[in-house]
Every structure is written in C-alpha cells, then in structure tokens.
Amino acid sequence: MTTGRPELHGWIRRAAGSAARFEACFAGAAFSSHRHDTYVFCLTVSGVQSFDYRGTTRHSPANGVVVLHPDERHDGRAGSDTPFRYRAISVAPAEVQTCLRGRPLPHLANGTSDDRRLHRALQALLQDFDRPLEPLQYDDGIYGLATALLAVCGPATDRNVRIDRRAVERARAYIDANSSRRVTMDDLEQATDCDRWQLSRDFRAAHGTSPYRYVMQRRLARARAHIEAGVPGAQAAAECGFSDQSHLVRQFRQAFGLSPKQWCKAVHNGSRAPCTIVQ
Questions:
Q1: Residues 147 and 194 in one domain
Q2: Are 248 and 21 in contact (CB under 8 A)?
Q3: Which is nearest to 20 in space by CA: 97, 110, 95?
Q4: Can you name the residues that pair with 21 across neighbouring β-strands?
Q5: What is the CATH number of the domain that holds 93?
Q6: Cα angle for residues 203, 210, 153 (degrees, 5° grid)
Q7: pTM given for the model
C-alpha cells in the first residue's frame, strides 16, 4: 500500500486532470470543523482516519470508505499515533442526482462503510493519480459510485417529493455566472420564474446545501485557486466577492478546515510527497 519510505505528513496532492481528486497525509489534528457543498468520497490508504460527524466520532482504518454528505459538518485527525493517508474525490450533488434520474440524494448516515460495492466503485476512480481520467472513464466511474451509494444507503428522503429541476439548474447556472457579486433571492426568482421559498427548498434537496452556501463555495473555490497561484490574500478577497481579507480567511477555514496559509503549505508539501499505490 505504501512505498516503504519515511512518512512525510502534512500534505495535499492533487491528481492529474480536471476531476477533483486528491491525496493527503496528516498526523495528529488535521482539519478543524468545516463542511463542503459536494460529496467527498475517501478511501483510507494507511493509518486510521478519525472525525466527528453527526454527533459521533467515526473511525476509518486502511481500506475503509468515508462518504461525507454535502453540508455535513466534520473535522479530521489521526486515530492513532501514526499518520493517516487517504485518497478522495469531490463530486457535485448534481452529478450524483443526474445518475439517479432525479431521485433524492442518498445519505450514508454513519459516514463510513466497509461495503465492497462502494470500495470497488471508489477504487476505480482513485487508482491512477498520474494520468487524467478520460471523460467516458469519469462518467462511468461517477455512475458506478452513485448507484453503489444508492444501493448501500437507499433513498434519503420521501420518493414523492417533487423538485423543479429546471428552476434549480437555472438558479445554479445564474450563481455560477454571478457569484463574485451580491446575489439575492430576488435575482434567483427572476432568473428562474420560481417562488423563492419553493426554490430554496428544491435547491437544498437537489444540491444538499442552500443557495447562499453554494454562492460562498463558488467564491471560495476561486479564491483558493488565486491564493495557490500566489495572489495576495487581500487581492483574492476583493476579486472573489469577500468584504475583506479577514472575511475570506474566516470563510476559508469554515469550508476547508485549514487557513489559507496552512492550505498552501500542505499543497506545497504535496509536491514532495511520495506516490502511493492503491490496490
């Protein structure tokens, strides 16, 4: 599973290609409490990955699967005296829902699983980090992951709940195009021709998070790319829609569990990290 070389920890390394795949290794406390607007599917490679989730401490040993649902608060730390290493992929809720033909998002309540169906589906997407996933390979992999998750979890909510998917997708597209400026529910009502309360409810059901949280995550994704590229924090804050640098730092930590400085250090360390073979 590992190279046998001394364990360097405190790093994050992205896989080749555009898919949001990454590998990380930490010792002790890794991430403070935070939440994402995506699913995060993790495969623990070595050590024990421990985290607080839905009021309980969870533990994922080597070869264990972790599934973090959108907008669920969690942290991250080593569950033993040795570092823990994992590989992961972030998947937009819309991609999962498309695979499931609009059914409600499945929810793995425990956050961890040893189900072989999930393990196989996740492993197919995480094996080769040095080569980008081909488009068809990615689509096949996401379909396999979504259907495995549904098989393990079952539907998370009442099948009879009806979502105006067209309005939700119009709202998402509007936010994607305008997230660096102030977006209001009036804007979303006009863009979708949908009542704000129905739209807010349907957006949460479809994407696992609120329109405001989705706006903030789009800003943070751009700000993170800016900061990694060496853009000063104050400039990144101004260009990505934050009121000032302290606002950016506070929101960044709430979304990623690390400060921008800690994140950049981990990404820098990742360029020196040894490659892991996932079997």
A1: no
A2: no
A3: 95
A4: 89
A5: 2.60.120.10
A6: 70
A7: 0.81
